[in-house]
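Dissemination and training. As part of the outreach component of the grant, students in the summer workshop were shown how a complex can be specified as a set of sequence lines and then modelled as a single object. The example used during the hands-on session is reproduced here so that future cohorts can follow it. Participants entered these lines:
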Amino acid sequence: MRGAAQGYRAGPVVWAGIIASTCLMLFLFQKILWLVVPFVLALIIYYVLLPLKLRLVLQGVSHDAAAGLVSAGAFSLLVLTLLFGLPGLLTEAVGWQESAARYLAGGLKLLTATVNQLEGRFDMLARAHVGDELARQVADFSGHFAQKYLPGIAMTLAAWAPSLFLAPFLAFFMLRDGWRFKKFLGRAVPNAFFERTLYLLDQVDRTARLYFLGLIELTLLDTLCLAGGLWLIGVSGPLLLGLLTAVLAWVPYVGSILGCLLVVLVAATDFPGQPGLAYAAIGLFVAVRLLDDFVFMPLTIGKSLNMHPLLTVLMIFVGGAVAGVPGLMLVLPVLGVAMVFGETIGQLATDPRLRARHAHGKRLRDRLVTQDLA
Amino acid sequence: MLWFKRRHSNGKPAHRLAQASLFAGLSERELNILQGFMHERQFLPDEVVFDEGEDGQALYIVLAGQVSIRRHGATGEPIAILEAGEFFGELGLLDDWPRSAQAVASQPTELAVLFRGDFERLMDSHAQIASRIAMQLARYLGQRLREMVNKSASGAKS
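and obtained this result:
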């Protein structure tokens, strides 16, 4: 009588279904990105605040009141931070444009020096006037940047801001009604499949929680390592730079390249005429990325997504192809959840005993409701 | 949202759980917290709760009705008949070991279910409650072990 679920391993059909459903979800998510991004942010807030809420529940506070208190506390903290931090931030913002121009100029100087050095060594590059062409293209880009790209960026920010305000709102309802929703789903499931469904819900919750908390841990570790290295090299603002590059690394590949570029720009500006230090910053960046991929990632996010490294890399490319940058960011958590769903549905579909028990239960219910009918 | 809240709030008093020996010693406040982690299911007579050999993931407490514990293929008397307040499937709370017998409702039965994942979360968030339950469970398992030892000793004498 032992169920077929015991020792179940997903076969090629189930895996094809998992990959196809992951691609489909990414495609759909890309279409409703305005909702997906606040939802993901809300999930992160929810998993961070949940232990506080549960602590209050233990003190005898009801679930609703605990969710309200924790949300109000977090909101007050945010308001206070903005209240005290915003004036300083606005004062500094005036200098941002100047700093950005300075760092860009520093980076360009390093690039020009490197290209000139290469032209000196390789005749072929000198004959092609690579340096002149590069300078012309850079001048063209920076000359028309504000005109070409700034309105688009401003419009995107204006369109996204309201949807981002959904995140705290969603997080509050997740905190308040999440446990009710789980019971609600459980009630809808027939008795025969009940334990399996609870297991599925638990695995989805566990995967998402470990992924998002792992992402925060990973960001902290990356920030500390990069900040430490940059401080040793002597680059200015190492903590802020470390944090920015660690957050950019949430987007696989593209984020890492942008982060590296940022580090190089700052290093080249802080140490003009010393390209060695800029190269050292690049070396540090690559070393931290390797540490991240082979040590930190398996210790943090890797615990939540127990999947083959080759599949992970391939799916990152597939995610990028299907849904662009959002696809790169979302592919791993979506694949993790699709894996749990696929494997559980595979288990249920290949277990004739569970299906027979469900049919038996249904017959008993039918008999009960029809026994007084002719 | 109110319909959702009304339907799924703790309408039933938590002290229904107090009749279970497993929860002896828990205060009403603790029972209310525990109920947030539990699920309730209704079974008809002859409906299978779980099968022998199935992966165990949860512990069941009989709130009303009666449950028979049987070995697969055995047609005679069940190994045990459990009434309101008693619990079964306790090993499912501890590990992945398959169920050692089949549980079937022998009357219209109402069960409270404590899923292992929820018990683990209870240990994380409400360690005091979880440790009391674990202590009761350990006492129960110890008692069963002593009974088995006595039984095998008396079997060897005879």
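Residues 127-157 of chain B form the longest helix (31 residues). Students were then asked to discuss how this feature might be tested experimentally.
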